[in-house]
From TrEMBL:
Organism expressing this protein natively: Holdemania filiformis
Topology term for the membrane: Multi-pass membrane protein
A Pfam family it matches: ABC_membrane
Protein's name according to its UniProt entry: ABC transporter ATP-binding protein
GO molecular function, one term: ATP binding
GO cellular component: plasma membrane
Keywords: ATP-binding, Membrane, Nucleotide-binding, Transmembrane, Transmembrane helix
Length: 552
């Protein structure tokens, strides 16, 4: 994944323009295929016209025209398939780029975004909204351009053959399009109602299963049956409607095209001005009949494409709103980790005042220092702001007043890359990542070597446990491979793998029994050597009296 640092360039328009610039040649090819496909689809009726004209003149028709007819049909089919493949590929390229840019944007968002916004909403943006965007290209604008070209091509060919029929179609085509849209809208509405009803039933099933005993004991079976009936009835009725619209639409279109041809034939047989407008050879009549039948499929497709474009609009607006989210300060590397300033404290809070919301202050004029190599424990009532101090240390938030410095550098000025070398952070439970057991420790950081991982594992005493796993370090992650205490040991291994200067421990033994806690404490003692350790835990302080207690 390519991360962009100049994040002002992260917009939906730029994502699409990037693909267009990268795929210029391919898109030109697509344009040519669409044009060639449109032309090729117009050729078979022309050949047919020649054949029929020759036959009516009682002239012999050689194998050439028949072969040409077949070849043009085959060519039109091949070009149509090629067009579908190329349009799908373009749509996929665009959605891949948009997803990459969304990931890059996600990386720049401030911590406040993740607490403010529901995670499901962000997931839906990445999955559903980008899929809708994909449909916009796969089954929207590009296909619509191709279908519009087809309609125009057919109309032009008919105009050349018969001016009268051309005018007739110019009047009838918009009417037929309106009928098509009407049926499509009704059908989609019915399908939506059906989906909503089915979703309600799906929702009801786990509710029923969870409350089965209560339903039986309170004798509420009938009420539950009524609720199911209601939704199933709605689903049934909406499906009936959808089927009805689906079944009457095709006959209406077939009837319309036959009526157009019939009107043309009748008018062609009339004398005077009608004949000059509608009269044509038998071959041309066969050709225009073939053309008339070709106009309805693209018309129907355009209706569906409009629908896809409309449903993509809401998704596009959400994607654009996400790209407009204010981003956090993205600092460049400011600390020289190999030569940290000797006299500076590892951590210093100087008159820090901070609140997540403007009107609610969590920390007020808070000051303390932690020297290099020192072990301290933060203590205070619940809600005093201990975890908040960790967030300030990690530079996830900036204080409204005062400063938080790490080895003399403001915490929010430390780059993300440097943080992994500076901080090891252990929480109450391990937050696993998809991957192998080894990946839980390296967190996919390629700069962490296999030796460093092995050393971290030895340090916390998990080496024999991991060696006994089917594929050792390469065993796919599964939480059932480890006990609760071993999971915490793994979390400590993850924290120390990059050999960080500061260990931050947030109630790491809160979920452990006393036996396991002793094991974790011993691993922690080894992991803490030569590091600054800042922890939140009364239990840790009681067992680690050599440290200093800081009251918040
Ligand atoms: N992301 C957030 N957005 C808004 N308010 C928050 C956020 N995180 C914490 N708070 C609030 O900040 C205050 C301090 O919370 P914090 O978690 O730092 O306390 P704590 O001392 O660690 O508490 P505990 O010992 O119970 O974990 C609380 O009132 C909490 O509701």
């Amino acid at each position: 994944m390519t991360m962009k640092n100049n994040n002002t360039s992260l917009t939906l328009k730029n994502s699409v323009l990037t693909v267009i610039a990268q795929q210029r040649l391919f898109l030109t090819g697509l344009g040519i295929v669409i044009l060639a496909g449109t032309l090729a689809a117009l050729l078979p009726p022309l050949v047919l016209e020649q054949i029929v004209n020759q036959l009516t003149l009682r002239q012999a028709v050689g194998v050439g025209p028949a072969l040409a007819y077949f070849l043009f049909l085959a060519l039109a089919g091949i070009l149509e398939s090629l067009q579908t493949v190329m349009i799908t590929r373009t749509g996929q390229k665009i959605t891949r780029q948009v997803r990459q840019d969304l990931c890059a944007k996600l990386d720049t968002l401030p911590a406040a975004y993740f607490t403010r916004e529901d995670a499901g909403k962000t997931v839906s943006l990445f999955v559903n909204d980008v899929d809708a965007l994909s449909a916009l290209f796969d089954n929207g604008v590009l296909n619509m351009a191709a279908d519009s070209l087809k309609v125009i091509g057919v109309l032009v060919m008919i105009f050349i053959r018969s001016l009268g029929l051309g005018f007739l179609l110019i009047v009838i085509t918009p009417l037929l399009f309106a009928v098509t849209r009407h049926f499509q809208k009704r059908m989609l509405q019915a399908q939506k109602t059906n989906r909503a009803a089915i979703a309600q039933v799906n929702h009801l099933v786990p509710e029923t299963l969870n409350c089965l005993r209560m339903i039986r004991s309170l004798n509420k079976q009938e009420r539950m049956e009524d609720r199911y009936d209601q939704h199933l009835q709605t689903s049934y009725q909406s499906l009936e409607k959808a089927n009805f619209y689906d079944s009457v639409y095709s006959p209406i279109i077939v009837f319309s095209s036959s009526a157009v041809v019939a009107v043309m034939m009748i008018l062609a047989t009339l004398s005077g001005g009608w004949r000059s407008l509608f009269g044509m050879s038998v071959g041309s009549a066969v050709a225009v009949t073939a053309y008339v039948s070709k106009i309805f499929t693209p018309l129907e497709n355009i209706g569906m494409e409009i629908e896809n474009i409309q449903s993509a609009v809401a998704g596009i607006q959400r994607i654009e709103a996400f790209f407009r989210q204010p981003q956090r300060n993205l600092p460049e590397a400011t600390l020289t980790l190999s030569a940290l300033p000797v006299g500076e404290p590892a951590l210093a809070l100087n008159h820090v005042t901070f609140g997540y919301e403007k009107e609610e202050t969590v920390l007020r004029d808070c000051s303390f220092r932690v020297e290099q190599g020192e072990t301290v424990t933060l203590a205070g009532r619940t809600g005093a702001g201990k975890s908040t101090i960790f967030k300030l240390i990690l530079g996830l938030y900036s204080p409204q007043q005062g400063s938080v410095t790490i080895f003399g550098t403001p915490a929010d000025q430390i780059s993300d890359r440097q943080k992994r070398r500076l901080f090891g952070y252990v929480e109450q439970t391990l937050r696993p990542a998809n991957g192998t057991v080894g990946d839980q420790i390296s967190l996919f950081d390629e700069t962490i070597t296999a030796d460093q991982i092995a050393h971290a594992v030895r340090l916390v005493g998990l080496d024999t446990v991991i060696a006994q796993l089917p594929q050792g370090m390469a065993t796919p992650w599964d939480p059932s491979l480890f006990s609760q205490g071993q999971l915490q040991l793994l979390a400590i291994a993850r924290a120390v793998a990059a050999d960080p200067r500061i260990l931050l421990l947030d109630e790491i033994t809160a979920n452990l029994d006393s036996g396991t806690e002793a094991l974790v404490m011993e691993a922690l003692r080894r992991a803490s050597a030569n590091r600054t350790v800042i922890s939140i835990s009364h239990r840790l302080y009681q067992q680690n009296r050599n440290g200093r207690l800081i009251s918040i």
